[in-house]
Amino acid sequence: MFEPKNIDYVTDEKGKKKNVVLKVADFERIREEMEDLEDTLELEKARKNATGFKKWNDFIRKSKRRSCEHGLHRHHREQSAESFSQALIPS
């Protein structure tokens, strides 16, 4: 973890620390580390709450099976991915 070395404090008339003055580079590095930590927490949360993952080939096989069940034929395979996926999703 990054710890800035040159920190200046702004104090009140009683000497109590009120604000911190950092170099911009130090502030940006601290902010990046905080974002990395947030990303790590989100990843752990997603991993913890995941119900499972599908293999790509299984997904494709199921998609093809669904397209046949919904009466989609060869000409639909030539459409864009967007229109194909819209055809798979019932209205």
Query: Helix/strand/pairing class, anyone?
Result: mainly alpha
What is the CA-CA span between the terminal residues? 51 Å
Reported for the largest beta sheet, the result is:
2 strands, antiparallel
Total strands: 2
| Side-by-side strand order of the widest sheet | 1-2
Mean pLDDT: 80
Radius of gyration: 27 Å
Helix and strand run: EEHHHH
Name the helicity range. 55-70%
Strand content is 5-15%
Shape: rod-shaped
Low-confidence segments, ≥5 residues, pLDDT <50?
none
Tally of structural domains: 2
Helical segment count: 4
Describe the structure.
- The structure is a single chain.
- The mean pLDDT is 80.
- The longest helix has 26 residues, at 24-49.
- The two termini are 51 Å apart.
- The chain has helices spanning 24-49, 56-69, 74-77, 81-88; strands at residues 8-11, 17-21.
- 57% of the residues lie in helices and 10% in strands.
- The chain has four helices and two strands.
- 0% of the residues are buried.
- The protein has a two-stranded antiparallel sheet.
- The protein has two domains: 8-49; 56-88.
